[in-house]
Amino acid sequence: MVVLDGTIVSVALPSIQADLGYSPSGLAWVVNAYLVPFGGLLLLAGRVGDLVGRKRVFVTGLVLFTAASLLCGAATTPGLLPAARFLQGTGGAVLSAVTLGMVVALFPEPKERAKAIGVYGFVQSAGGSIGLLAGGALTQALDWHWIFFVNLPVGVVASVLAARTLRDERGPGLGRSTDVLGALLVTAALMLGVYAIVGAGDHGWGSAHTLGSGGGALTLLAAFALRQARAADPLLPLRVLRSRRTAGALTAQALMVAGMFGFQFLTVLYLQKVLRFDQVDTGLGVFPVSVVIGALSLGAAPRLIAHFGPVRVLVPGLVLVAGGLALLGEVPAHGAYASDVLPALFPLGAGFALAMPSLATLAMSAAAPGDSGIASGLFNTAQQVGAAFGLAVISTLASSRTADLLDGGSGAAEALADGYRLGFRVGALFVLGALVAAVTVLRRRTATRQQEAPERQDAPVSARSHVR
């Protein structure tokens, strides 16, 4: 539901603008008002889950997200919708931050955990693709309000099931030693950083707005790091980041998502503006990626990770993703879907199906039971920041190339296609950066570790601690 909401809105933006009378800059805040709190609160929400219990945080986020969806759907003024979207982004962050940590806690056995993380990866991809398809269908058949109302039955049912079936956990609680200052610093830093990134396309990467916001975010992050090194009970224990596997997985995750998120954005534009697909056909056009991801994530990928280990599965996965983006980097101005787009979707889907659960396994493998919430929050934060950064960079470069060609007298189709080709190639470079992180930072450091079985590498934390 949360991932779906990230794409379902994009298809309905023209209808929202026409109905509520937004300016182009005002319309951007229908998206940005969701992204800023979502990216900024993931880390804090993950740590709160460790302290007060992940089930409590999960259900709270689910209720808030569902209630905010109702407000979004009922919005009739330009000011109410961004405010409701801010609340929805807050609920989405609280809900998402603890999800992966709950999956790891619920499935401690390596093979079952690999299957569960495969389902987690599939749901993320399917939510994005279904959002494009459902957004177009609902907007065309009814109106844009229903892209938010569809969350209500899902949210109500999920809240009831979560309350009844999830195990109640008790953390140490929010006592006097809770790092309130650290929470304020990191939340402000992440929100300001996401704000700088999402506004860079409008203001320019070298503008005072972007540099000032980005510099402020980095300053706050530095203050947060200093606070964590000195606090008796830090919000983000530095031991979580000292793990080579965790740090490498977060880096690779951010870079891979930067490329994949740009792929989804550019593919939608290419299908609609160059190949002249309508909204529903566009959703169907990108859906094969989710079909391939589902076929592999729910079957082959977990078995491969259990047998070979996550790093050996991650590397070919990233190669496939980069290859698919490189193929899209050749799309012509007068192309055809079957010959120019569809062949690239299969390696993209297969690569993501292998890479995503591998990265999740690596990111969570070194986290102690009491740190699984913060590790889950870190993983989702890396994903969100990577998506925002990748989209901002790729969209800016693509639109700049198109504008330059149009100024030079090129036709609209040729200029658009050339801009999209550049964007796809930049996305491939992001994924190649993730590949470099995978083969350097994540490689096993000793011959002893090379000889360990995958089950030992990915064993539950409690078992590994006992062995040590």
UniProtKB/TrEMBL annotation:
TM spans (from-to): 27-45, 57-80, 86-107, 119-138, 144-166, 178-198, 204-226, 247-271, 283-301, 313-332, 344-364, 385-402, 422-442
Gene3D superfamilies on file: MFS general substrate transporter like domains (1.20.1250.20), Multidrug resistance protein D (1.20.1720.10)
PANTHER family associated with the record: BLR6921 PROTEIN, MAJOR FACILITATOR SUPERFAMILY MULTIDRUG TRANSPORTER MFSC
GO cellular component, one term: plasma membrane
Cell inner membrane found in the keyword field: no
One Pfam family, short name: MFS_1
Stated name of the protein: MFS transporter
Membrane topology, from the record: Multi-pass membrane protein
Keyword Transmembrane helix carried by entry: yes
InterPro entries xrefs: MFS (IPR011701), MFS_dom (IPR020846), MFS_trans_sf (IPR036259)
Residue ranges occupied by any Major facilitator superfamily (MFS) profile domain in the UniProt entry: 1-445
Subcellular location: Cell membrane
GO biological process: response to antibiotic
Keyword field: Antibiotic resistance, Cell membrane, Membrane, Transmembrane, Transmembrane helix, Transport
Stretches the record annotates as Disordered: 446-468
Entry's Gene Ontology molecular function annotations: transmembrane transporter activity
